[in-house]
Amino acid sequence: MKKLLIYFLIVSSLLTTGCFFKQQSYNDTRFLMDTIISISTTGKDQASLKSTTDEAFIAFNDVADETDRYTSHNPNDLYALNQHNGQGAFAVGDHLYKLITMGKEEPYSAIEISLGPVIDLWRAHGENKTVPTDEEIKTALAKCGRDKFTLDKTNHTVSLASDSSLDLGAIAKGYAVDYAASVITKNKAVTSALINAGGNIKVIGTKEDGSPWRIGIQDPRNAQKVLGVLALQNGQAIATSGDYQRYYEVNGVRYCHIIDPATGAPARNAISATAVSTSALTADFFSTLLFILPHDEAIAVVEKTPQLEAIIVNPEGEIYVSPGLQKIFTKEN
Amino acid sequence: MRKNDYLLLLFLLFITGMGYLFHGQRPATTEKILVVQHGQAIIQKINLQNVTKASEIKIPTAHGQVIVNVDSNGAYVVSSPCRDKLCIGQGKITKPGQTIVCLPEEVLLTLITPGKEGTIDAIIR
């Protein structure tokens, strides 16, 4: 009986203090891909959470380095490819090859990964707070298009026309989130995780209390408010493209960083577009696409694409919530 | 087991149950903590309940310093050497989960609360 009581005392003490079954949590935040990446994990072993998070950041960093077109990181990265334009086939890294293949083969002309020259033009004007002339835009656009680059599947090479350059801003971060998530899910010691890359989020597992992940969507015209809150489940990813994070103004007109390939100018059909899918890459791609397309066309894309849901805010401030999100989206007053 | 053993067992079960009850009914805290991060390093964690008078904190960065005003309700960026000053335009953060980001200077301000019940897990921007 004494033994029984001793065991009981130990177990009840542990339960009362919440130590025995308490989940551990670990959070790390770093600056990568020109944004803030935060990874939060929960599980039973703090050391394992830390090592897994570190591995996920290494994975994220691999993609970041390979897809960075402004700085050289390795001999097969995007910076090196763009420098090699007009000089024939160039061997690229695996991540880069996958993303360029996607950019070449995806069916929507509103997403164009060869817009490097136009993006550079707007970037240069943005530094001086000026706006490019129509002639400058036309000249830059002439260097863009899917005919400006070809891929060789056998040798994993890309050939880029002279004066052309690729930019993977519309898809690279989503791909990196998925890649980091794949590292986390391999480790069974992690029971849940949230990867937050600013405009791209993926959730893994369920929270300790079993409730859904609550993701706020920023109000595009009030940084202090959220439009509403989405309740996400295990494996869901969400991405938002907006005109409020990176932009500059000239004479009261806002020029955001998302360029419409049809005009070579910043897209103006939406002020915020959020896409929800099971893949962060898909969510990233569609959030940019839905931001660029005219409102009606964007809604049509959402309706015809399986496993894609969206929230789109048009320039008048009207909010479209796709049918699949209406039950899990709580609008903020 | 004797009668007293059963009584002791019941008593211990009662104490354990009360412990759970107390733990579960603890009121959600309204405490707000400002986490100041530069690059990968957390520079400061400030419990806003302890801020009795608005004050400025200066964060040294690669191009100068980011100055942040902190009071008991929240925080905002007063000045920054960055080009576009978008961090200043983000205004004041007052609710847990809100952040202010200055990407060029790699400064991140986040308001968190120790009690997370009912709050947002993340905000997508």
Quick rundown:
The complex is a heterodimer of chains A (333) and B (125). Chain A is of the alpha+beta class and 333 residues long. Chain A has helices at 2-17, 46-67, 78-83, 94-105, 116-128, 134-141, 172-186, 280-292, 295-304; strands spanning 24-32, 35-43, 89-91, 149-152, 157-160, 190-196, 200-205, 213-219, 222-232, 237-242, 247-250, 253-256, 259-260, 265-266, 272-277, 309-313, 319-321, 329-331.
Overview of this structure, please?
The complex is a heterodimer of chains A (333) and B (125). Chain A has 333 residues and is an alpha+beta fold. Helix content of chain A is 35%, strand content 29%. Chain A has two domains: 24-65 and 171-331, ApbE-like domains (T-fold, Roll), CATH 3.10.520.10; 75-160, T-fold (Orthogonal Bundle), CATH 1.10.3980. An eight-stranded antiparallel beta sheet of chain A has the order 1-2-6-7-10-15-16-17. In chain A, strands 3-5-4 form a three-stranded antiparallel beta sheet, covered by helices on one side. Chain A has helices spanning 2-17, 46-67, 78-83, 94-105, 116-128, 134-141, 172-186, 280-292, 295-304; strands at residues 24-32, 35-43, 89-91, 149-152, 157-160, 190-196, 200-205, 213-219, 222-232, 237-242, 247-250, 253-256, 259-260, 265-266, 272-277, 309-313, 319-321, 329-331. In chain A, helix 2 (46-67) packs antiparallel against helix 7, helix 7 packs antiparallel against helix 8 (280-292) and helix 8 packs antiparallel against helix 9. Chain B is of the alpha+beta class. Chain B has a domain at 33-112: N-utilization substance G protein NusG, insert domain (mini-chromosome maintenance (MCM) complex, domain 2, Sandwich), CATH 2.60.320. Chain B is 21% helix and 36% strand. Chain B has a four-stranded antiparallel beta sheet, with no helix packed on it. Chain B is elongated and about 80 Å long. Strand 8 of chain A pairs parallel with strand 8 (122-124) of chain B.
